[in-house]
Amino acid sequence: MLAGAIALGLIAGPPVAAGKTPPGEPGKVATAVGTGGAAASVDALATEAAIESLRKGGNAVDAAVTAAGVLGVTEPFSSGIGGGGFMVIRTPGGEVTTIDGRETAPAAMQPTSFFESGAPLSFDAARYSGLSAGVPGTVATWDEALDRYGTDSLRRALKPGAKVARKGFQVDQTFFDQTESNVDYFDDVPSTAEIYLDPDGTPRDVGTMLRNRDMARAYKRIAKHGPRGFYGGPIAGAMAAAAQDPPVGEDADHVWRPGLMTEQDIGAYAAPEREPTRVGYRGLDVWGMGPPSSGGSTVGEALNILEGYEPLGADRAQALHRFLEASRYSFADRGAYLADPGYFDVPLSGLLSDSFAAERRSLITDQAADAGPVEAGEPRDNEGDPALVNTTETPGKSTTHLTVSDRHGMVVSYTFTIESIGGNGIVVPGWGFLLNNELTDFDYSDPAHPNAPAGGKRPRSSMAPTIVTRDGEPVLALGSPGGSTIITTVLQILLERFDLAKTLPEAITAPRASQRNGTTTSAEPAFIAAPEARLLQDRHGHAFTRATPDPPAEIGAATAANARLVFALESA
Ligand code: GLU
Predict the structure, then answer these.
(1) Is residue 456 in a domain?
(2) pLDDT digits (tens, 9 = 90+) for 182-226
(3) Do 260 and 164 lie in a common domain?
(4) What atom of ligand 1 comes closest to residue 482's alpha carbon?
(5) CA of 338 to the centre of ligand 1 (A)
(6) Is 193 inside any structural domain?
């Protein structure tokens, strides 16, 4: 939760910023109210670019892709053309659809590709390597979204991002800290060090203008040739080479294992349009991202469990207890049943059925089930449930979420990432962008797991871009970074907003807790200090640990937009 670090924009109406601008973070406000369209991201330049696109008559998809292009430059450790993500789109006509821009594993990948001498690699050895890089899906996502739902060309949408790459942006403290956490590996790779480190090997100082001419060149090439300029030709060649033979310097002090990605793998990439997940919740429709993300199904299952409590709790502590327990059981099911649907028969309709939710709810008592992980249920028994028919109608982590809406009622909720902060640490030589380490999202140490690596497969994600509608009209849209805490962050914000009488900004700033089928619940310090935490411990038997990394000990830099009437917007 990072209420102070959100950049918001509104295109018309009173440009009121109802919130404070954090010192040293120009252009950022916690909340804003207005009409005519809105954008919320973690970066002021990106939000401005979205607003400018809307002002020029672009729709929400045009504005989202434009802002995403800027985020790829200014948030290069969290997002960009070297990674992937998921976009949920609500059209002005009221349809909801999604684009799956998740990275794919190279064709040669095997369930044991991350093993050496019979044992799985450590996380860092797996991550900082060519092996962890999946074929990036971001450029294909942008192209698909614009092609099907936008009005702008990719060429125009990439202009603001290319300009920021060329002219530069100012390094802030967060950027400095994110670089610092990677210095030990970035300084092994000359193409990475040249951009992100000073000549003495330390991070670029706060206040430095950081220019990335190579990334501007990559954007220019994609602008000129379209996605073929990325999935073929010199960029594809350079990506495959960087993954197969990591471009480390002679004095590198780590082993960078070679990867498997070929130009053929890159050329074969596609970002399919998929049905969203949908659950009904207290008269609302909650739309999310289906497999290979576990976001929509896990948020959806937990909401279905919680809908059976009316009200959610007799007091706030009981409501939060049920939230934590519903999350615990839903995570048990997520762990057992969520993977790329092209490789594993995901029992999605069972997971999202009311009858399965009732089975899981019946296991929840007034005491936390935290003696050990709870077991997964049997959603397959519920797949024939007639109630299902409409359910699917249609470690220090990174990632960024962007929410945009326009005056016509088009809404975009887009989460994208390169997985860890700094991805796999390899800037593709000559092209200025970091490769992702998304393939560490596979259960790579368990070759029999549904989410084990395989050629062409997409690793399971937790990203949960979400749109909420009522009677077909948009109510709000939200999403968050934070690895698997994304799911609990989105769930908690929805509950705070719809069950616990908070406004959207209050729901976003409420201290968060995250129960993911563990023996303890990780929580922000402010949550642990709140009176409910004592009741949760004493009355319901919960145990809390401080969220890491410490600092900031925060869970999820969520962004959201709240649509009311004709797009009066309020965001935090
Ligand atoms: N790679 C993660 C996922 O897809 C997101 C990265 C993060 O937010 O930590 O679930």
Answers:
(1) no
(2) 999 999 999 999 999 999 999 999 999 999 999 999 999 999 999
(3) yes
(4) 8
(5) 15
(6) yes
